[in-house]
Design brief:
Layout (H helix, E strand, L loop, with lengths): L12 E4 L6 E4 L20 E5 L10 H9 L1 H15 L2 E2 L5 E2 L5 E2 L1 H9 L2 H15 L1
Antiparallel strand pairs: 1-2, 1-3, 4-5, 5-6
Helix pairs in contact: 2-4
Bound molecules: zinc ion.
The site of zinc ion has 8 residues, from loops.
């Protein structure tokens, strides 16, 4: 059965892929479950890198972040924010590229936002506008 987080659960454990070095954030309850790498799909056991700035209570999960980018009404607000924050360019869909035109995996985009308190808060506000 897929893991279903409770509403009060917050993902705050940082995992890293040993194959492609993508890092992403999971729930405590997901530790030990087989979680494929969001960057390359590798099923190799991810390395535990540490904790995000937990306790802010303002994390937006990877799945929620993805939905913000997929829904046109939120995408038109969130995408320019992401482009501005990370100096990336939106290429349509869920694709971002950096200044050199290299693809930036969505998990990396999410992770970098979640690792920055101000951006995390602004993204959370966007998320809460929708959730209400
Ligand atoms: Zn990987």
């Amino acid at each position: 059965m897929p893991f279903q987080p409770l509403p009060q659960d917050q993902p705050h454990i940082i995992l890293g892929c040993p194959d492609c070095h993508t890092s992403w954030v999971v729930y405590e309850q997901q530790i030990g479950l087989p979680v494929p790498c969001p960057g390359c799909g590798s099923a190799a056991r991810p390395t535990r890198l540490g904790y995000t700035d937990a306790g802010s209570g303002r994390q937006v999960s990877f799945g929620s972040f993805r939905r913000l980018l997929e829904q046109p009404d939120t995408a038109q607000r969130v995408i320019p924010m992401v482009e501005h924050w990370l100096n990336v360019r939106h290429e349509g869909g869920l694709q971002f590229v950096d200044g050199a035109g290299q693809p930036v995996p969505l998990a990396e985009v999410h992770f970098r936002i979640q690792g920055h308190a101000q951006w995390q808060g602004e993204l959370y506000n966007q998320y809460m506008n929708v959730a209400r």
